[in-house]
Amino acid sequence: TESTNTLAKTLAAEGAPHGTVVIADRQTGGRGRLGRSFFSPAGKGIYMSLILRPQCPPHKLMHLTCAAAVAACDAITGVTQLRPGIKWTNDLILNDKKLGGILTELSFSPGNESSYAAIIGIGINCRQSETDFPEELRGIAGSLSMAAEKDISPAAVAAAVITQLSDLSGHLLDDKNNLMNRYRNQCITIGKEVAVHRFDTVRHGY
Predict the structure, then answer these.
(1) Cβ–Cβ under 8 Å, residues 45 and 143
(2) DSSP state, residue 135
(3) What's the pLDDT score for residue 36?
(4) In this predicted model, what pLDDT tens digit does every residue of 41-96 receive, in sequence order?
(5) Whether the bond into 89 is cis, omega within 30 of 0
(6) H helices then E strands: how many in the chain?
(7) Of 20, 25, 60, 181, which sits 20 to 30 A from 168 (CA to CA)?
(8) Distance separating alpha carbons of residues 188 and 191, to the nearest angstrom
(9) Contact present, 102 and 68 (Cβ < 8 Å)
(10) Whether residue 113 has pLDDT greater than 90
(11) How high is the pLDDT of residue 28?
(12) Is the dihedral of CA 162, 47, 24, 16 positive or negative?
């Protein structure tokens, strides 16, 4: 597919129910935050999106990306015993290389803004070797197989991610504090010098 998030938003607009999962072997137009592309070759990773129908106002889901990142890390650890870190706000990092990313989006029904769907998109590199990445990504991107030094099944990772997201969906509101504490504990950005780029302005902070 072009993008599992794009397809999930289309299905949500057509009435797809809570818990619908879109998963692809390959994306031709995988998307990340701020319109960035996400490298999505066939047979090498998982590219999936989950449709949620939360029973709460959208502003209560500001932590959705953080919660989904924790769930993805739990899934990865369950399959590989490896524990990724989270680079604020939505990147999964392992051995100082980007392993995957989270893209959450809200999809509203035209003319009925009270009815909406939350889309959680997750891409995880599973089977790539260093030479599978474009040259410009080789210094910054990695995969589970590279880190584990053995083949990691995308199907096993996908099943674990679906299970974790399913569990998460029932506790987004009543377990928010615990989820955010776990996110902070796994966030590798805390305590680092950072530069925030916004249009032509760059601000530095800690």
Answers:
(1) yes
(2) G
(3) 63
(4) 788 899 999 999 998 999 999 999 999 999 999 999 999 999 999 999 889 999 99
(5) yes
(6) 5, 8
(7) 25
(8) 8
(9) yes
(10) no
(11) 84
(12) positive
Distance CA 13, CA 86 (A): 31
Rounded CA separation 83/104 (Å): 22
Place of tokens 């998109």: 121
Percent helix, strand, coil in the chain, to 5, is 35, 30, 35
The three-state secondary structure class of 156 is helix
Q: How far apart are CA 123 and CA 101, in angstroms?
A: 6
**Radius of gyration from C-alpha coordinates of the chain:** 17
Q: Contact 22/11 with Cβ under 8 angstroms?
A: yes
* Region 8-24 average pLDDT: 94
Q: What percent of the chain shows pLDDT beyond 90?
A: 75
Q: Give mean pLDDT, residues 3-29.
A: 92
pLDDT at site 39: 76
Torsion angle (degrees, nearest 10) of CA 54, 60, 61, 67? -110
CA-to-CA distance for 128 and 44, rounded, in angstroms?
Answer: 6
The predicted pLDDT at position 92 comes to 97
Residue 75: partners with Cβ closer than 8 Å, 6 or more residues away: 157, 160, 161, 163, 164
Q: Residue 195 is which amino acid?
A: A
Render pLDDT for 137-161 as a digit per residue (tens, 0 to 9). Answer: 889 999 999 999 999 999 999 999 9
